[in-house]
Amino acid sequence: MDITSHGAVLALGTGWYPVETEGEQRFRWSSESAEFRLAVLDEAPYRLVLQLEPGPGVELRPFLLSVFDSEDKPLRRARVVGRERITLDIPPLAPGVHRFTLRSEGGGKRIASDPRSLEFRVFEFQAVPAELDIVPPGVRLLKGWY
What we know:
- The protein is an all-beta fold.
- It has strands spanning 10-12, 20-22, 25-30, 33-40, 44-54, 63-68, 74-80, 84-93, 96-104, 120-129.
- The chain is built from no helices and ten strands.
């Protein structure tokens, strides 16, 4: 079993270290730049859900986690303070397989006992379709709507 949920919409790419266990917990360490791919069947926004925590690469301190698209444009970012669950909303995508990259800001530190760059460790990583609204993607409602 891996950190990604069952279902073939999310696949990890380069920048991830092999699955490790500590007690009952499974996790993967991320390097400074960790890729993943998202398979999209219908044009819809997606929500990335990660349970993660800072690692030695960011000195075990709070950091900003950013997600970049395949053209290296920043899409979303979230502050990670400790072990927590965060969500990152991805805008609607055309059907196909899309590549993204996760990066931690201010990382890159190494520890003497491990040659790897251990930016953050992820215990769970899911991609789920975001709730659809009554209006199509890209349309924004103004005042008076609940």
